[in-house]
Amino acid sequence: MLLVEDGRDAREILTGMLELRFPQMTLHLADNGKTGLDTFREHLPAWVITDLNMPVMSGIRLAEEVKIIASEVKPSCSPRSTTNRYWNPARPRGSGSTITS
Fold this sequence. Notes:
CATH class: Alpha Beta
Strand order of the largest sheet: 2-1-3-4
Strand content: 5-15%
Largest sheet: 4 strands, parallel
Low-confidence stretches: 81-101
Mean pLDDT: 82
Number of strands: 4
Shape: globular
CATH architecture: 3-Layer(aba) Sandwich
Structural class: alpha/beta
Number of helices: 3
Number of domains: 1
Order of helices and strands: EHEHEHE
Distance between the termini: 17 Å
CATH topology: Rossmann fold
CATH superfamily: Response regulator
């Protein structure tokens, strides 16, 4: 799994939640869309969770690039993304769903 979140606190909270829920899973972290895309290319995780509004490359652009590389992967938006002003209920093209607890 790849978690892409530029907010340190949000990234740490989500990391803790994911590690508790999926203890056997390998979790890769990135703090912006560009680093996330590089990490995705290197590890090809089956699941990507991304923030939408990030520096360097947005989560929307990341989702589009992931779908080009691996069409079976459906990136999901982090919960924090759904509460910011950049959230579009129509979701970015090729995205999966919003992760909720």
